[in-house]
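Notebook entry, structure prediction.
Reason for the run: the old model in the group folder had no record of what sequence produced it. Starting over properly, with the input documented here first.
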Amino acid sequence: MRIELEIWRQDGPGDQGRFERHVVDDATPEMSLLELLDRLNDQIAEVGGAPVQFESDCREGACGACGVTVDGVPHGPVANTPSCRQHLRAFGAVTTLRIEPLRSAAFPVIRDLVVDRRSLDRVIEAGGHVDIATGTAPDADSLLVTTDDAELALDFAACIGCGACVAACPNGAAHLFAGAKLAHLALIPHGKLERDRRARAVGERLEEEFGPCSSYGACVEVCPAGIPLSAVAAVHRERLLGVLKPKRR
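New structure, fully documented this time:
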């Protein structure tokens, strides 16, 4: 199958950037978006050009590294599916694709399709951790957690930090990402000690790095992990609890 591509090229953070047109004549329906980019780069390299820079790692939908925007949609047309698992067979009769980076003021472009997502890392640094006592491992039944809480915590922990939620949000908010982290840690006993401090720290970092959440719900449609919109509510709930509790020194 013949695929016409409009690919975003940008030499660096200070470059204005532009779209380049390319054609891949030997694409197949089984190809993923990343395999299509691989094939394109083979063609570009054959004529001595500079390959398109993009990120990938596991290519199994687990690492969150591969996010791109396809025809204006983070990751691509198939809902709740990362870029590496978007296959051309799902695009129907579409033969022209526009591929560009995840678009957000919080994600400056480094080169071509590669963006700087360290703003998400800074949210984790602010409060995405727990204090664990060192020494002998505790008995298995010393920290009690119900099956329902454990399963729900694992559901929220499934977030892979790809950043698609931020790119999909009209406000550039990261509340789905941050809420998944807060909800996950609030449900397990290990995170109780610093729960209020975590909520304040994460909330402050969100305000510094990202836009406000207006609950549009666009983030949920593109999230590869299927994180529910209730994660957004967790941000506000945990922050309120953090404000009501006295600050610990």
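Summary: The mean pLDDT is 92.
The old model has been moved to the deprecated folder.
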